[in-house]
Amino acid sequence: xxxxxxxxxxxxxxxxxxxxxxxxxxxxxxxxxxxxxxxxxxxxxxxxxxxxxxxxxxxxxxxxxxxxxxxxxxxxxxxxxxxxxxxxxxxxxxxxxxxxxxxxxxxxxxxxxxxxxxxxxxxxxxxxxxxxxxxxxxxxxxxxxxxxxxxxxxxxxxxxxxxxxxxxxxxxxxxxxxxxxxxxxxxxxxxxxxxxxxxxxxxxxxxxxxxxxxxxxxxxxxxxxxxxxxxxxxxxxxxxxxxxxxxxxxxxxxxxxxxxxxxxxxxx
Length: 268
Prior knowledge:
51% of the residues lie in helices and 13% in strands. The chain is α+β, with helices and mostly antiparallel strands. It has a single domain, classed as Cytochrome c-like domain (Cytochrome Bc1 Complex, Chain D, domain 2), CATH 1.10.760.10. Helix 2 crosses helix 9 and helix 7 packs antiparallel against helix 9. The chain is extended and about 95 Å long. The N and C termini lie far apart (79 Å).
């Protein structure tokens, strides 16, 4: 005899299973890894000086290995508030044409042989990662002799990227605590401390890192400044249309004769 399936009989079991899965998932997510704190940062796209400073370092340092293929040199001029002549005089194009996309001069095969992985494109890196994560990443390299490049990073464990800012920031040592990594006990770096002095002070390098992050954020959100400029006007237009629509509604219904009024007039 075939027994008919009844969902009601299994509701308590399903509810209990859902609660157990949610509890286990929350517990596992909270203790599986010790996450280092992120450094806060405020991005101001109206600060053109910061964007230009960040563009200088990004175009002449980051682009040595990475690319920005989603943006052209010519479009950066508008983002930075520069004319073509000003852009070519202050930022430059690394020997490429003004309307070319920003690509790295480093062959991909050479980079893969050096760091075992092709450097990612940075066009939308500020969308994939938060500004706080990028800021912490740029300022949190530390000495790790076990790594091929000699350095590691607090927010990107076993990072493949070398510390290209070591000469400016100086070398750093990790602040290590006992924690969890992928669910297993491990020593986790949750911060850094200065080890040697670079060509910049800590405040100067932190400002440089913020400028680079601000520039990458502007590249990943090329129309945000225009949206912020047009937003109040669009909202004002919708408000005006709403008022006109309401007045038209009142005018229309003020001239409509209801059935009661119609019969009253006919009877009269």
